[in-house]
Design brief:
Blueprint (H helix, E strand, L loop, with lengths): L4 H8 L3 H7 L4 E3 L7 E3 L5 E4 L2 E4 L4 E3 L1 H8 L4 H15 L8 H12 L12 H10 L4 H9 L4 E2 L5 E6 L5 E7 L8 E3 L9 E3 L7 E5 L2 H10 L8 E4 L6 H9 L5 E4 L5 H14 L4 E4 L8 H8 L2
Parallel strand pairs: 11-12, 11-13, 13-14
Antiparallel strand pairs: 1-2, 2-3, 3-4, 4-5, 6-7, 7-8, 8-9, 10-12
Organism: Desulfosporosinus acididurans
Protein name: DNA primase
Pfam families: DUF3991, Toprim_2
Length: 301
């Protein structure tokens, strides 16, 4: 199905700030009369002059690109969505085309299924222990508990579960050192992160971007093992932290151990603003390295 140039033109005329508010996104102005708006709970997603920049995803662009990346729409879906919004703003009654409606219905039917496991975990074990310097005992324990496994393509799979123990997402990491691969399993629900629970309830959670950083912290500080929650968000989006805190009312301290870069700085600031009223927010980003695995590897050369 082709898209008329007029529809694309109308889509690009949509005011991105008004559209965000229409979608229920909460906007926080960055400084008085700055014109910069941060989208709450989206970790480093900034809007200015009808353009967006999403630090955690290394993406940016116009309102169509915003729809495609934030709401995971195809180009056709994004144009149709925005053109419909524009018509509504002008009092029109334009409806999505039948093809777009069918595509949306198919997307809604898709469900999450964990990637199929390989018969062994040899590549995962070698990558985590030799390349990433995670202790063998810790890796073996997490494999045994089902929190790490190897898929049929040889990737590390880090399953993410809801409060009832149902798998809702999976973070993927390649195991070939010179061919970096980061992704998430198909149909993953981004509201859920990878969680390692303590032996008893704790009032403290350590938040990282990646699972490997969370494991690195345990190796560097073994006294924390079994004593605190560790939550890997799979990036700097705050939805997993929001879900976690809503399910763990007893947690009052949030240790932020995200990366030492611009996206990490934006993430820390967002956590302070979004959760600082009811929680103590503690900054534990690495000082002289980009992330905690770099710290670990530098000490185990």
């Amino acid at each position: 199905m082709t898209i008329e140039k007029e529809s694309i033109k109308r889509a690009r005329q949509v005011n991105l700030i008004e559209y965000c508010r229409h979608k229920g996104l909460e906007l926080v102005e960055e400084g008085k009369n700055s014109g910069n708006y941060r989208v709450k709970d989206r970790g480093g997603l900034i809007i200015k002059e009808n353009k967006y920049n999403w630090f955690s995803k290394n993406s940016g662009g116009d309102v169509i690109a915003f729809c495609m990346n934030v709401y995971e729409l195809s180009f056709k879906e994004a144009v149709d969505e925005l053109a419909t919004f524009q018509d509504t703003q002008e009092g029109g009654r334009r409806s999505p085309s039948p093809a777009i409606r069918r595509e949306r219905l198919e997307r809604e039917k898709e469900v999450f299924v964990l990637p199929k496991a390989e018969n062994d975990n040899n590549k995962v074990f070698a990558y985590l222990t030799r390349t990433r310097k995670i202790s063998e005992d810790l890796v073996n324990r997490l494999i045994s508990s089902g929190l790490i496994y190897q898929d049929e393509r040889g990737n590390c799979v880090f399953p993410c579960f809801d409060k009832n123990g149902e798998a809702k997402a999976a973070i993927l990491r390649g195991t070939i050192p010179d061919r970096p691969f980061h992704n998430e399993a198909k149909n993953s629900d981004k509201k859920f992160g990878w969680l390692l629970k303590p032996e008893k309830d704790s009032d403290l959670v350590i938040v990282t971007e990646s699972v490997i950083d969370a494991l690195s912290i345990l190796v560097l500080s073994p006294n924390l093992d079994g004593k605190v929650y560790l939550l890997a968000m799979g990036g700097v989006g705050l939805a997993p932290l929001k879900v976690f805190l809503s399910n763990h009312k007893g947690v009052k301290r949030v240790v932020v151990s995200v990366d030492n870069d611009e996206a990490g700085s934006q993430c820390f600031k967002a956590i302070q603003e979004d959760f600082g009223v009811d929680h103590e927010i503690i900054d534990r980003r690495p000082k002289n390295k980009k992330d905690w695995n770099e710290v670990l590897c530098s000490r185990r050369k």
